[in-house]
Amino acid sequence: MELADIRREYTKGGLRRKDLKENPIDQFNLWLEQAIRANLSDPTAMTVATVDENGMPFQRIVLLKSVDENGFVFYTNLGSRKAQHLEHNSKISLHFPWHPLERQVHITGTAEKLTAMENLKYFTSRPKESQLAAIASRQSSRISARGVLEGKFLELKQKFANGDIPVPSFWGGFRVKPQSVEFWQGGEHRLHDRFLFSRTEGEWQIDRLAP
């Protein structure tokens, strides 16, 4: 089969203005809850897009760890490529692809670092193996073989076998403060429903977009 011939109809139902909540965070939380209840694989997985100093965009998938009126939170190695990009350009884009529900959410905004207390609170809540992995992996750095990474992990596991693991200085979180949030619902005959929430002077404006 030719790639151009691969298509399907979207039949899960449309999205109408009257069905939208007035606040995009409330609408997002509703859709996220529905994605979780639908037992989707990795419902909190999101594509994070950043731009390097040459204007080259990069994307990767990370997990959303919390969301509230202040924004969307994720954690990473602060020496990683994404973190380095955000150091010189805090603009960021998030994308949630909930394919089985025929839904997408696209967010644009700016990223700011979390406080040391916020980092500590989340880091200590993680499984011990995840804490060790955060220290063992200098994310995005070049390594000669997987064995190097595994060796460092086992070394740290032995070192902290009977004690607390300190929060590494090179690890932390970002909060994405949204400037726009778009909700996309698939529709029959490619007549999809798209609604864009845009923040203007502290208020959210809602517009329907053509598919």
TrEMBL record:
Its cofactor is FMN. GO terms for molecular function: FMN binding; pyridoxamine phosphate oxidase activity. SUPFAM superfamilies: FMN-binding split barrel. Signal peptide: none annotated. FMN binds at residues 60-65, 75-76, 81-82, 104, 139-140, 184, 194. Binds 1 FMN per subunit. One of its GO terms (biological process) is pyridoxine biosynthetic process. It holds the Pfam family PNPOx_N. Its EC number is 1.4.3.5. Keywords: Flavoprotein, FMN, Oxidoreductase, Pyridoxine biosynthesis. Pathway: Cofactor metabolism; pyridoxal 5'-phosphate salvage; pyridoxal 5'-phosphate from pyridoxine 5'-phosphate: step 1/1; Cofactor metabolism; pyridoxal 5'-phosphate salvage; pyridoxal 5'-phosphate from pyridoxamine 5'-phosphate: step 1/1. It catalyses: pyridoxine 5'-phosphate + O2 = pyridoxal 5'-phosphate + H2O2; pyridoxamine 5'-phosphate + O2 + H2O = pyridoxal 5'-phosphate + H2O2 + NH4(+). Substrate binds at R7, R8, E9, Y10, K65, Y122, R126, S130, R190, L191, H192. Residues 171-211 form the Pyridoxine 5'-phosphate oxidase dimerisation C-terminal domain. Residues 32-158 form the Pyridoxamine 5'-phosphate oxidase N-terminal domain. It is an enzyme of class 1 (oxidoreductase). Catalyzes the oxidation of either pyridoxine 5'-phosphate (PNP) or pyridoxamine 5'-phosphate (PMP) into pyridoxal 5'-phosphate (PLP). Belongs to the pyridoxamine 5'-phosphate oxidase family. Homodimer. This is Pyridoxine/pyridoxamine 5'-phosphate oxidase. The gene is pdxH.
